[in-house]
Amino acid sequence: MMLQHMSEQIKRLRKANHWTQEQLAQRLNVSRSKVSKWENGEVLPDLKSIIDMSDLFRVSVDFLLGKHPTDEQLLQEVKLAYGTNEMNEERLALIRYINEQRELAKRLYALQSLPSHKRKRVEEVVIKMIDEMIEALK
Asked: Is pTM beyond 0.70 here?
């Protein structure tokens, strides 16, 4: 089960990056035939290759292995990674929501890239509009 999941993940992530097996092999300093065997589910990658793929694809080793973290584990990892206790269930739910709302996520990303003095004014207007809409829909 893990072998099949991992082979599918490697192939999916490689294709998402528009890389050939040869290009992935070069990035990982392995042979193309080794990448092919991983993707065909013939063998599991060695630990170094798994860690290298995790870094290269910017995903966790758990993700590559098919182990999906619980919300509690995810919150703990974010707290450790960012050195904050600010992450909570509410923020995790917000991240999920933004991830599902692609167009909104694009606009928020554009907003956060504005200079702070411009961003703050736009944020004030947006917050007011959202508050008014929520109140009107109650």
From this structure: no
